[in-house]
Design goal:
Arc Repressor Mutant, subunit A, mainly alpha, DNA-binding, homodimer, 0% strand
Chain lengths: 234, 234
DNA sequence: GTCTATAAACAGATAGAC
DNA sequence: GTCTATCTGTTTATAGAC
């Protein structure tokens, strides 16, 4: 426990986790049998009960695994400026810095969700758990989604001056996230309409560019009236 | 067959369809048993085989039903200007008209997806079929998604002059649709982050207003450089 | 820790009475 | 057209050999 922080006694366990993540992601939780998982992991059904207590335990373990990995990936991006200098308080950026950091984060998210190889097993699982309000969604929300959303809201404040936790800003950040995530969730629809067989680096880059342009357009004052959000002409 | 174009001999059939739509939408296809459906329709399992041939037949019938209803709902919006006058050719609008029609369609879609009572049973089913690439997705895509997307692209062309079927425009329309649909698919996440117990009319209106503002910002020339999409500084 | 064998519950489909 | 009863296969979970 002390001398060996990470020995590899988790061959079977890890294989089951990998297989489950993959299959839950592609077929859904209810659409996947523990037989399939055991077969894909070159193991047997009983090993799932042994290591995870059952199918639901395996689901929870997948969620924790995903949250851990995503936090690891998101960490360097989330506190790029927090740990820069001690007296900086790590909270305020110049509007231009915040603006370009927002665009940079958007680009990263698009590339990660659409074509990063390390995201391939994680993202489908996460998105399914996000749609299905399962008891597992809690960990994913608290561990990943909320921190990232809060960070984006903070950057938005630094870029525009609008209060980060206002309804207006929180919802606007969701419209940004929605644009990105739709290209994953609605993947089959997009590919079909675009007559693309699959996403490639070039196509991902194109998508990221369009969302970046949208983002910059919304961030721009545009010298028009944007007094209060509730005064739409309807 | 001729004298009675639509008598009501479809009490059980209709009840099964309604129940299936509801349960498939909330629990997913594989997460729903035909026993549940029969029970919810106050019928029995055998009636499903009799009326629809089996569970998969019921799924297809649900898809057709949804496509029919959505087309009925979307029709008056889609060809509002097509049937206006014969010599109008029904294709070209003034930029201002196209622009306000785009905003109007966005508002309609948000309200329909988030709080229209008639959408409540349809939308979850459709969104699930859209994520899972099932053989049923075909009908939904061809019947609803593609026509709506094409119409939006056409309006975008009328509003901006960019060619409707260009990659640029088709993807931009998807960023618009993504913003809207995310508030449905990511509903649980949004509600939690906003600390809202549920969507209300006011909140839906607020969301619609923010997306409308984004749309207008992107549609505006903004007097900045927007020469070609591939020349991002990176 | 790993695996085979089996139990108990569940799925979808169907036969046949009414 | 409707429904009960049943068939057949599959599911998760588990007991027990190794």
């Amino acid at each position: 426990m002390i001398a060996k922080p990470k020995p590899p006694p988790e061959t079977t366990r890890a294989a089951l986790l990998r297989a489950a993540l993959e299959l839950f992601g592609s077929q859904g939780y209810q659409g996947t049998s523990i037989r399939e998982i055991a077969a894909a992991a070159d193991s047997n059904i009983a090993s799932i009960a042994y290591h995870f207590g059952g199918k639901e335990g395996l689901r929870v373990a997948c969620a924790d695994h995903v949250v851990g990995l995503l936090q690891q990936i998101a960490a360097p991006v989330l506190d790029l400026n927090v740990a820069q200098s001690p007296e900086d308080s790590g909270k305020n950026l110049s509007p231009d810095d915040a603006r370009s950091k927002l665009v940079a984060m958007e680009q990263r998210m698009v590339h990660f969700l659409l074509s990063a190889p390390e995201a391939k097993p994680l993202v489908p699982f996460m998105l399914r758990e996000m749609s299905d309000p399962s008891p597992v969604m809690d960990r994913i929300f608290t561990g990943v989604i909320e921190p990232v959303h809060r960070r984006l809201c903070q950057l938005w404040q630094d870029a525009t001056g609008e209060p980060a936790e206002s309804e207006q800003v929180r919802l606007t950040i969701f419209t940004l996230i929605g644009q990105i995530i739709y290209f994953r969730i609605g993947r089959e629809v997009v590919l079909r309409r675009m007559q693309w067989p699959s996403y490639t680096e070039d196509r991902t880059e194109k998508i990221a560019g369009i969302i970046a342009a949208n983002l910059e357009a919304v961030l721009s004052p545009s010298t028009q009236d944007q007094p209060s959000p509730g005064s739409s002409p309807e």
